[in-house]
């Protein structure tokens, strides 16, 4: 039984400009993984080690995946996104091989951002199912991260979780996920920026981003995307009747907002 070991490789067209808010997080990503890639000699001159990844945590829909993809676009790197469940579920008994194949593929395609979603699924499996062989998978993951058998130069490793407390502390040692960043629900200026990004290039008429952002307390980036989708949906039928694109207004978006529930309130 030899599973296919090819994972999808993207060439993202989004960059940091497509991510609203998150200025300090973007800066951390620049310092920790982008600059070491573009200027390794400067880091080496100061004796700064290169390598290691960033673990992002926070409520769903607040842009962790989007930011990882934009990081790749920012440096013209390729992008591979893998859910840990994808590895755990699809190749039972063969997960370690798959994980190795995945890292190998990323190394061959460097520069490449390798993004792991739901990494907490790994930690949970270690404590809950000690005998199931998932411990081997964790050890495999750690040695791939450490680059023991092959260098990870040019492979930028990012991971995301909604439940960082489930992740085994071994993952947070130096050279592994030694930076942990909270990706919060967007604040008011970030919500304004996100809406502006989402409506860029679309027919709009004097949209007040400030008014909308104020009203959108508790809305995640994904919620805001839903708002824009609902507003466009409503506008489309109007436009179809008249045969021309009708611009979206603040009122259209406010109406759409009342139909979408904010998902991050409890965070
Ligand atoms: P999950 O934990 O559910 O995987 P996530 O934090 O990875 O969530 P994303 O999938 O990145 O969230 O976000 C969902 C969508 O919301 C993105 O595809 C993007 O369109 C939009 N979005 C979220 N945050 C932002 C942002 N800061 N700027 C622009 N768009 C955003």
TrEMBL record:
Residue ranges of every copy of the AAA+ ATPase domain listed in the record: 50-187
Keywords: ATP-binding, Nucleotide-binding, TPR repeat
Family, similarity comment: Belongs to the AAA ATPase family.
Identification of the protein by name: AAA family ATPase
